[in-house]
Design a protein that fits this description.
Blueprint lengths: L1 E9 L8 E3 L1 E5 L2 E2 L5 E5 L21 E5 L2 E5 L11 H11 L3 E5 L17 E5 H10 L14 E4 L16 E4 L2 E10 L15 H11 L2 E10 L1 E4 L3 E4 L1
Length: 237
């Protein structure tokens, strides 16, 4: 059973829009630069949770990219600045409806600002699963950006609507990188939110709950680090 890497994504700031990559180094904690900063409401100190609080639903409309030692932010995906640039923060505030505060996550648990929730190192969604969802919910715009995967794997349709569910507990080879499937990825309201080029779709989550038990895609652990590239073969054993 083989497929290939269709796309690679990195999300330097949790909950903000990510960046699509052609290649990426993968370490034990996942893609380098992935989810290394958090976004908070500067007034309340609450960390953004767009899928759970209406207050934060515009956050995915902002853009973030990895900038070596830190992150860069943008409103339009074209003009970029550092996370403390006042002009950019004001522009993002106008989009978000609150003044944002950006902070790096502390890499040492218990010693500083930590993520709202912890992620597995990598998250995979297959094209086969997205096609199945499109058949189950034809009124929707099925776009990988809704699901925020690390890797989209091009995979042929199988009898199972979501082939990656069968990869849990198995070895997944992506080029020279070796992963193991850990668990299904449970979904929240984030997948329904309006993003650039994607409309609000409140029925999408209902379909996933009804058809897939709220799960869509899988989380994976890294067994052998390395570098992944778009087009790399994906093999399950």
């Amino acid at each position: 059973m083989t497929g290939s890497v269709a796309s690679i994504w990195r999300y330097p700031v949790s909950s903000m829009g990510g960046e699509r990559l052609e290649q990426a180094p993968v370490g034990p904690s996942g893609i380098e630069g992935d989810r290394i900063w958090g976004l908070l409401d500067a007034q309340t100190g609450r960390i953004a949770s767009p899928g759970r609080e209406r207050h934060f639903i515009e956050v995915p409309r902002g853009h973030a990219r990895f900038a070596g030692a830190g992150v860069a932010l943008s409103v339009d995906g074209e003009s970029w600045a550092g996370p403390d640039d006042p002009v950019t923060l004001e522009a993002l505030a106008a989009v978000f409806g609150f003044r944002p505060l950006l902070k790096p996550f502390d890499p040492v648990p218990g010693e500083g600002f930590r993520p709202r929730y912890e992620h597995a190192p990598l998250h995979i969604v297959t094209t086969a699963a997205m096609r199945s969802l499109g058949r189950d919910h034809p009124e929707s715009v099925i776009d990988e950006r809704r699901f925020r995967p690390s890797l989209v794997v091009d995979w042929a349709d199988e009898a199972e609507a979501m082939p990656e569910q069968g990869w849990i507990g198995r070895e997944i080879r992506v080029g020279d990188v070796v992963l193991t499937g850990r668990e299904p990825c449970g979904r929240c309201g984030f997948i329904t939110l309006e993003q650039e080029g994607l409309p609000l779709d409140v029925e999408l989550l209902r379909t996933i709950v009804k058809r897939y038990g709220r799960n869509f895609g899988i989380y994976c652990d890294v067994v052998v680090p390395g570098e992944i590239r778009v087009g790399d073969f994906v093999e399950i054993s």
